[in-house]
Design goal:
149 residues; alpha/beta; 6 strands
Length: 149
């Protein structure tokens, strides 16, 4: 079954929703491993851009994603921060074989975006609710979003 990414009515006018929807479509068409992660996703993710005063909900259901404008239902994971921080989420690099974020001395250049996002989280500029309760959902989502292999 091919992955399905839909924008709900009204989500086309939300620039962040349109950007993430297009990014996910591109990544799924290029990489079959991402498609496997995408089919394993089930839950909803709320993304709130505080500075732009916009929000969007991504509802995953085993191979189907519907992106809504605004908050819909009770999310499993919520990202809350400035739009610039939210747009940097796809910059996280993952190991090809381990499929975990690249960290440490061997990957200094590629682990920079992850360190920057960790700094934003520790300063409170980016909040991730549901991080501890739904780590697999979050990890799979970041792998699907990631621009780098």
């Amino acid at each position: 079954m091919d992955p399905i990414v839909d924008l709900a009515p009204g989500a086309e006018e939300n620039p962040l929703a349109a950007h993430l929807g297009q990014l996910i479509r591109e990544h799924l068409s290029r990489d079959p491993k991402r498609a496997a992660d995408f089919r394993a996703l089930r839950g909803s993710v709320l993304v709130v851009a505080q500075d732009a005063d916009t929000s969007m909900t991504m509802r995953f259901d085993h191979g189907r994603l519907t992106i809504h404008d605004g908050a819909i239902g009770i999310p499993s994971v919520t990202f809350c921060g400035d739009e610039s921080a939210l747009r940097r989420l796809p910059d996280i690099a993952f190991h090809r074989w381990l499929r975990l974020p690249k960290l440490g001395v061997l990957h200094r250049r590629q682990s920079g975006p992850l360190r920057d996002l960790a700094r934003l989280v520790t300063r409170g500029e980016l909040k991730i609710y549901g991080l501890v309760a739904h780590p697999r959902l979050l990890l799979r989502l970041l792998r699907v979003l990631s621009r780098l292999p």
